[in-house]
Amino acid sequence: MKIKKYTISVLSYLLLGFCGCKKSDVIPIKSLSCDWPPNYSVEAKIVDIVTTVHQSFWEDTAYIIRNPSLTDTAPFWGACNMPDKAKKDGIKVKVSGYIITFPGIEGVQFKHGRPFELISIEYL
After folding, report:
1. Which of 118, 91, 102, 112 has the alpha carbon at shortest distance from 32?
2. For residue 122, what pLDDT is reported?
3. Is-contact 93 53, C-beta < 8 A?
4. Mean pLDDT, residues 54-70 taken together
5. Which domain of life is it from (predicted)?
6. What is the spatial distance between Cα 103 and Cα 124, in angstroms, rounded to a whole number?
7. 41: β partners
8. What is the CATH classification number for the domain harbouring 92?
9. 15 or 89, which is more confident
């Protein structure tokens, strides 16, 4: 009898674990690594986008990721955690990451593109 009760309990917990919470496609499972404002949120998740890295127009040591979308108002993403290997003007990459937003972002002028945090980068 104890085995039957135990099995029912375990199955119930598993069922609740899989069905009880709705998982979002946008919110990261772990906290992000960059230093964002305390009230930031993830606006969108970018997955496996093929694009290029460019040297910033404003600063020789800064590199930005070209947003390949023609419909987006932000032509570049400023990755806070760009690896040194990717800091080459014109290098082709496949990236995934999170576009970050926060209250008042509409009034901010970003010199190095829209706030973006890389979760993966592949060199092509």
Report:
1. 118
2. 94
3. yes
4. 87
5. Bacteria
6. 36
7. 101
8. 2.40.50.500
9. 89
